[in-house]
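Late entry, evening session. Most of the bench is empty. Finally got around to the prediction I had been postponing all week. Sequence below, unchanged from the version circulated by S.P.
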Amino acid sequence: MAVFLFFDESGNFDFSANGTPFVIFGTLTTRDPAPLLRPLSDLRYSLIASGIEIEAFHATEDKQRIRDQVFAIIKTVGGFEFDAVVVEKRKVDPSLYDVTRFYPQFAYHLLSQVFARYPDESERIVVITDALPVKKTKQAVEKAFKLYIRQNLGNRIFTILHHPSSSHACLRAADYCTWAIYRKWRDRELRPYRQVGHLIRTEIDILKAETKHFY
């Protein structure tokens, strides 16, 4: 038995008025990644058969009518939990701007929420992220997960994998959930959020109490 964590993020690391206002870390957690695979695959091939070329679902890029169908599948199939940490970037101390410090600082809070619900040490932890194009970012993500697991979960066995997002239906679902939360925070748009709200276990505004803005 294993606990699968599919990690996603939304927002960029431009800490200025030109950057995104938030960075959101999200994790889809499940013991069984299979249920989403067939319906999302069926939808993709149905779209291809109708003349729509689509390599993989991506919430930011998909047209609204495709998004509606993907959300309908995620909402109906379920079988997972989703946790998110929202970071308002203008409140982040400049000493944390480097990704090698940013990820461990804020991913820690996300992981603490998840693993509080999965305490069984006999269950292997499998962390799967999108294939990250920047080596430094990949190392920062791995550092964040390894640091938390080693400090808090002792000798629990774990694996960290970086795979193309198209290779896992749960990574696509994580992308959609993170995007829905991001739209809520950035644009106050609740329509996508309502599709997955029942699957969200925690959604923490981690710097809510901070009042100082750095830009």
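Two things to note before I forget:
The chain has one domain: 2-205.
Helices lie at 37-49, 64-77, 99-115, 135-152, 169-187, 191-196.
Will write this up properly tomorrow.
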